[in-house]
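dumping this here so i dont lose it again. seq + smiles for NAP
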Amino acid sequence: MNRKTDTPVTVIGLGLMGRALAGAFLKAGHPTTVWNRTTSKADQLVAEGARLAPTVGDALRAGSLTIVCVTDYQAVYELLGVSDSELDGKMLINLTSGDSAQAREAAQWAEQRGAHYLDGAIMAIPPAIGTAEAVILHSGPRSGFEIHKATLDALGTVTYLGADHGLASLYDVAGLAMMWSVLNAWLHGTALLRTAGVDAATYAPFARQIAAGVAEWLPGYAEQIDSGSFPAEVSALETDVRAMAHLIEESEAVGVNAELPKLIKAMADRSIAAGHGGEQYPVLIEEFSKPRND
Ligand SMILES: NC(=O)c1ccc[n+]([C@@H]2O[C@H](COP(=O)([O-])OP(=O)(O)OC[C@H]3O[C@@H](n4cnc5c(N)ncnc54)[C@H](OP(=O)(O)O)[C@@H]3O)[C@@H](O)[C@H]2O)c1
């Protein structure tokens, strides 16, 4: 990573994640100012060389770049609101988790106070911060990201997604959808196999191979979605639905929870009823792209 180590940075919020972020800046050599509502959480960082600001205003004044990482957006407004005049001209990166509407609203709030604002999402756990494994997403004006990228590199693999401040949050939840879907599918398969005495560790390598194989299909399926054309090149949805019925029947026969495949089959059945049975699986994007109204 190309790191710039002399930029003063401020980290506001020293929970588990904020402490990891400040620690990574310190480790990379950045003069690091910190602030937290509960002051004692700064002790270790101060021992490592951080400067503890007495107030949020002092913290904002100290660095050209301020990272805020607290529980939620309400906390961001509560703590920055009292010193909002200090935001003028400052670069603020909010790595607090939230939704896309909250991110866009916070961008307006910060920009009305003269700040340059990027919203971000951390797709990593605290121990990974400071390593390439930690993916940190940013959205908002590109210029703000470019100016500070070399400093942000201290945190992990930092990525810019686009000018819409809501993008980082949207990618964040899209990633959660992927993560839980893969885990849930694995748990369901593991529950099935355990009924025959196969333990989780035996099935895990097979499951991993299947997940990796399915992941290979994504670029081709994405082309179908983007072009809005779903020719059944390898399998038609009506064939897939017969396999779904098989999965449900097997689950029920061996006493395993079948709620998940029933949910997916119900979506596929609606798609077939709408005339898409002869098309390929990604045609289900149309079911995923609308709320369930009935
Ligand atoms: N931990 C993870 O694995 C992880 C991964 C990805 C993203 N994140 C995101 O990172 C953010 C922080 O998570 P965390 O794990 O660090 O949480 P945490 O350990 O619970 O820390 C929460 C932080 O928010 C502060 N805070 C809460 N309400 C406040 C208020 N009204 N005014 C001032 N400060 C307030 C807390 O201050 P006090 O210390 O005074 O209570 C503390 O610094 C969250 O949005 C979380 O979703 C976390």
